[in-house]
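Much of what follows relies on a compact textual record of a protein's fold. A record is reproduced here so that you can trace the correspondence yourselves:

. . .
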Amino acid sequence: MGKWIIVAQRGSNGDTYRCEVVRSVTGSREDAQEAMRAVSLTFREPWREKSREVYQYPSGDSCLLIVRGLMSETLITLSIAEQVHDSAGPEPASPEPRDSVPPMDWSPSQ
């Protein structure tokens, strides 16, 4: 089981860029993808939402939301990301010298 987050990214007229973690998920990649789909139906409802379109990218790990409100249109990208390192995590099973950095496995869990 992995630890995942759902990240929302959006910009506004090229002036502002926001990135925020909207949910944490513990489980498989499929669990995280399902949670992202659920978030895509409710995230950032503008005042008087008129329509919402959700487009999933082929990998299934991200999607684009197009939310139209009374006076605006917002584009938001939702993505999932798996935690690969936590410096506050549990100590390694075998003692290692303090000055060495253990190799990190960057491959996603399946």
Q: What stands out?
A: Residues 3 and 26 are 5 Å apart (CA to CA). Helices lie at 29-40. The chain has a mean pLDDT of 83.
